[in-house]
């Protein structure tokens, strides 16, 4: 099943209650899609979806469960939603994502990230769903080649941790599926470093336990929840010795997924380019029915520069101390986003100052994220049960899903 010419498209977002997933769900609803979310809530809260619904005035079909549960996927794809088209596309976020943690727990990462995607693609095949957007990572590149300042998609892929290797494995699996299934169209998006929050301050990053990313640490330090920030490595060959990253605003990234889905539709409507197997082997990112795009700004900022910007935006200090490098880290990773800019018609528009401003607004208004004084806040959702979230009521059953924003 592909996008119908007149039908209102219906998209499954796996991991859609998480940080990037919830922001993407919001942008999809705003763009006129119906959205169903599947998330096991291992590092997320259904409260994020309730808040997304409050922002757009719409409803979201939510299933609590794991993408490795094939029987559940059959129910999700089975078209139980009344008044909606069946799901015609999938945006796949559900994964473990901490590079340092993956070094200590590689089997968990391969099981979740690789096995989970195979389960999802297999279920999509059973239900003839042939549009796919995959959440990959710049970690597939590893250490940039000498002299490369802006990493292009055709750069060598030499990931330096199990997290990056698991994502690269999945990329190759998706390409093989697209080669075997002539109806399949997939878009692979390699993220650089998503930060920030929606400008409303209503949704943002709310990690459980120890954060896996830099900015939540910085925010917790600014808020006084941590005594200091550990800057891991000040001996990198960079502008100030701290690691340099291409930070991208999460809202820009979310809009990139809408552009990717639109491009997947274009791929269905056009005859695939003829590309030799030898050329694809030399550069897999040019696969005619499974293209790959960097999602970044093309501009790098060091950890110390980001800390300085956060201090300027908040007017508060960020105490920090030097700490050893983390296993699997690299010195500098900055995207060349030209391919996405030209082909997808997408471009990041928000800078580091806006990222810090929006992240601090979210943090200052939600000190405990989606958790309240007595623990997690959100709709109580049983495993394997569909709940309609948003529109002023959360309930189980077969009610129609999201009507989307006013149009």
UniProtKB/TrEMBL annotation:
Its cofactor is NAD(+). CDD domains: UDP_G4E_1_SDR_e. Pfam families: Epimerase. GO terms for molecular function: UDP-glucose 4-epimerase activity. Pathway: Carbohydrate metabolism; galactose metabolism; Carbohydrate metabolism; hexose metabolism. Residues 11-264 form the NAD-dependent epimerase/dehydratase domain. GO terms for biological process: galactose metabolic process. It comes from the Eukaryota. Keywords: Carbohydrate metabolism, Galactose metabolism, Isomerase, NAD. It catalyses: UDP-alpha-D-glucose = UDP-alpha-D-galactose. One of its GO terms (cellular component) is cytosol. Gene3D superfamilies: NAD(P)-binding Rossmann-like Domain, UDP-galactose 4-epimerase, domain 1. Mutarotase converts alpha-aldose to the beta-anomer. It is active on D-glucose, L-arabinose, D-xylose, D-galactose, maltose and lactose. In the C-terminal section; belongs to the aldose epimerase family. In the N-terminal section; belongs to the NAD(P)-dependent epimerase/dehydratase family. This is NAD-dependent epimerase/dehydratase domain-containing protein. It comes from Rhizophlyctis rosea. The lineage of its organism: Eukaryota, Fungi, Fungi incertae sedis, Chytridiomycota, Chytridiomycota incertae sedis.
